[in-house]
Design a protein that fits this description.
Elements (H helix, E strand, L loop, with lengths): L1 E6 L4 H15 L2 E4 L10 H14 L4 E6 L3 H7 L7 E3 L3 H9 L5 E5 L5 H13 L6 H17 L2
Parallel strand pairs: 1-2, 1-3, 3-5, 4-5
The structure holds D-ribose.
């Protein structure tokens, strides 16, 4: 399993902590698509990079972190095929996989601390899409994307 991770300047330490946590706990390869500098860095660049890695199949799932998680999640969701869920607690992160088949998790480094972030990541990585009625609804989401791209 490969995980892509992207971040802006507000989330350098959080990115490093989460990357090390995933590598150690799960043994997954974590590929860095974010900045390692505290210089101001525009979050859409990292959001697009990690999202393209997911849709290209370079990684299985993505994690996107900015100050609030909002800007980077909005950016991720502009990439066709991405379903990015911005979560501040583990329950939503689990349901984003089980019901929404989210393929990128976003959260805010200025919103959640590192221990809560690890719980959110655990929920995301250990939950599976349930399909069934949820597949129909996720299909409807992707149909919206398709219709929008034809405008
Ligand atoms: C950067 O200052 C901040 O705007 C960014 O990390 C994020 O919170 C945007 O949504």
């Amino acid at each position: 399993m490969k995980i892509g991770i992207g971040n802006d300047h507000s989330a350098v330490e959080m990115k490093e902590e989460i990357k090390a946590y995933i590598e150690e706990k799960y043994g997954y390869e974590v590929i860095n698509y974010g900045t390692d500098s505290h210089e101001s860095f525009d979050y859409p660049i990292a959001g697009e990079a990690v999202s393209r890695a997911v849709v290209n199949g370079d990684v299985d799932l993505g994690i996107a972190i900015c100050g609030t998680g909002i800007g980077i999640s909005l950016s991720c969701n502009k990439v066709h095929g991405i379903r990015c869920a911005c979560c501040s607690e583990p329950y939503s992160a689990a349901l984003s996989r089980r019901h929404n088949n989210a393929n990128v998790l976003a959260f805010g480094a200025r919103v959640v601390g590192p221990e809560l972030a690890k719980m959110i990541v655990d929920s995301f990585l250990t939950s599976e899409f349930e399909g069934g009625r949820h597949a129909r609804r996720v299909g409807m989401i992707m149909d919206i994307e398709e219709r929008e791209s034809q405008k």
